[in-house]
Amino acid sequence: MATSPCSSSGVSSSSSSGLGADAGLEIRTRSVEQTLVPLVSQITTLINHKDKPKRSDKTLQAIQRVGQAVNLAVGRFVTVGEAIANENHELKEEMSVACIEARRAGETIAKLTDVTSLDHPESDSHITIFTDKTGVVKAARLLLSSVTKVLVLADRIVIKQIITSRNKVLATMEQLEKVSSFQEFVQIFSQFGNEMVEFAHLTGDRQNDLKDEKKKARMAASRAVLEKCTMMLLTASKTCLRHPDCESARVNKDGVFHRMRLALEQVIEIVTDSRASGDSEMAPSSIYSGIKEFKNKVEGLRENLYFLSKENLSTMLEVILEHTEDFTDSAYTSHEHREHILELSKQAKMELEQLVSVWMQAQNQKTKDVMEDLEVAILKTCQCMNELKREVHGAATSLAADLLKYHTDHMVLKALKITGVEGNLEAVAEYTCKLSEQKEQLVEMCRLLRHVSGTEPLEITCIHAEDTFQVTGPQIISAAETLALHPSSKIAKENLEVFCEAWESQLSDMSLLLREINDVFEGRRGEKHVYLSLPRPGKHNANLKALKPVKLDTEEQAKIAKLGLELHLLTSDVDSETEKWEDQENEIVQHGQGMSSMAYSMYLFTRGEGLLKTTQDLFHQAEILATEGTKLASALHAFSHQVHDEDKPLLLVEAEKLISMCRQLQLTAKASVQGKSATFTKVDACILKTRNVMTLLCQLLPLCCRLLRKNKAGNGCLKPAPPWREDKIRTGTNAHAPERRAETFGIKSLENHVANMTFLESK
Known about the structure:
By secondary structure, the protein is an all-alpha fold. Helix content is 73%, strand content 0%.
């Protein structure tokens, strides 16, 4: 396993402090970096003190305070480091050495800054910061180096936790792959789900902590694959168990397991900073990055005529023009775009020839006229490259926009579902060919978009999208073939639905990606787009006018991601419980489904997705959810009148709990706050209180369902008392609740999966 190097004693710091930079310790995470910032600041203050002939008592006291503060902070820090060392024996020796060095350096700094008791701090008999500045610099270097070592070693423990978690997931996956009975599958999948939730939390924290944006994007892509494949693994495995002799079902399942293993491996490569089999980290360079580098070199000729050769510049242009062949050779590039790209490629060669000619001339004679000619040649060359960049951008984005618009109806997927249920193998074969054609179009679109994405993280996102279409297409085909062979199989139908939803989800993600790429091209990246997308009741309008909607940035979304994931799992649980009710028109079910839909939209907000675009949208949604919960509590009270005495107290207690929680949520959502920090705290509180409400709802739904079933079994649980209230509100179609996207893929809670394992009898 490759880990952060910890052998060197140098760290980068402020050059003004006299602390030398050493690349031996590479800091890869923000948490390590941010921990060092205050320490570097204090030490820099000491090193950079002004050497005045006369020093006031105030100055001396300040110097001593800083020195003591550093020593005390290091002492506390080392105590924690030593505790970590005792718990992790494989790192104990390295950690102990680093802790000893840090403690020694802290004590040295404290002694050198102990100057207030001296009448003459410069006295030769007392070595202080004033008489031995070199000693202070050495102590500071040692302190920063040793503290960084401790932090990097502690970071290796986090990496070890992720690897251990991955190993558990892999081991359980192997068991899942070999099971032959539904009962065994249910038990093992429960364990697998818990392990995936743990892995999601650990890798989510790591992703948010990474400094390298490319690695962060790769981690996000791998985690997205794992999240979506978890549901695929469930339905594909169920289908295979239900139809053990079906070859297409086996191929479908094997594809999911293979993709999950690749994603798990990539996560480990990222956290350990290693690559299997010497693979290169990135795909070939894009046209955008090539043009950017080429222009930098060309413009660099203004400062230095000798820093590169003409052969290097020619080679760079050749590589760029080779990449443009991806556009000119593509069957999906319009004739107009193809002709313009070819013309600009030809012009770029001519401009470079002219530039090289003037450049060679300038190396021999730097006259004013020659230098002016060089400047003109540089400008014309860069202008030509800008036009080429604009042309390929237009070609890629116009193709993407057309394809995404054309495929929004999902006609091929719908046809596959219908013909599969009909058992029409011939029609399924016809539509699988059409899906393969669609896949090739979308894969080509992703390849061209990668060339114009503008940033490395977006390039990685394009590569991930291309892989998703490449893999998901054949998986849809195998799932459709399985359904066509077993048209009455409910689980085969469910499995096809899951893979089709993955395709639809990726198409939806492509629309967002296209918008980001256009934003980068037009220089809008980083702007906060504000959307007030939800309808507001009139009574709130006056208050809303005074509020400035806020959209959380990436870092804030990361902080609430874990809470959002828990909310997602709870909505899955609620959906599972409501599906068990025979009467889907039941008022309790209706309210429960509405609350689940609203909670789901709040979960999407934590991911920066969905219809809730601003914090004000979120707070408004929380208010509506709280109101819906209060209505559910009223329905529970009405239901309690039909329940005999022995069952009534428990139901009423739970209903009162729900009323109290909804009231707290409503108060939190309506509370007025100002400032970014206070707004984020309110967001966190709203999601936390929503989670509490949904947790209680998960307990209430099975309780009510049990009482209804008890009555049907003839136990006389319900009185033949008054009818249910007439003013039923169908919250599932509430205008204020964003329409929930068909079940997206997530790391489901295990109770939900187990509840769904009644397919032995039903499917």
